């Protein structure tokens, strides 16, 4: 029986694990209310390129406060990779497929996304951790979380920029199939 986001907020232990990346042990776990300061620092530390591809224009403190406030509510689950007290990476998972976005785009490619089986996926790695294998190491915990929530199809949250060749290679390496200019998906 699948679990819920609220249940994982109450007991995030099924999501918690240790990974080793580039010789450093990191803890992967759900975002916690106590992570707000570290989340602001993570967001503030993203380069202009990383921000353009992932974060957007919301001020860092406002975005972090919003993310902390919705823990266990709505459709979001965020995993973090923690290096001591710093966040090295964040995986944004969403269980909703708003009409007019992924559902509409994928239908245009002849793919019907079942909202009960599909999760949206958006990883981001701190610039200091890019190219060191952290994004690869976050795939298994993300897929485990998605399966735990009863989903077996993954699409990219908002798609992937056409000029982000590095991300496109990463997603293909992890089994995603391109179905349009910005859309990639995979079955777990």
From TrEMBL:
Q: Which GO terms describe its molecular function?
A: acyltransferase activity
Instruction: Read off the Pfam families from this record.
Output: Acetyltransf_1 (PF00583)
The residues covered by the N-acetyltransferase domain are 26-188
How is this protein named in the record?
GNAT family N-acetyltransferase
Q: What species does this protein belong to?
A: Actinoplanes subglobosus
| InterPro entries to which the protein is assigned, alphabetical | Acyl_CoA_acyltransferase (IPR016181), Bact_Acetyltransf (IPR050832), GNAT_dom (IPR000182)
* The entry's keywords: Acyltransferase, Transferase
Which SUPFAM superfamilies does the entry link to? Answer: Acyl-CoA N-acyltransferases (Nat)
Enzyme Commission number(s): 2.3.-.-
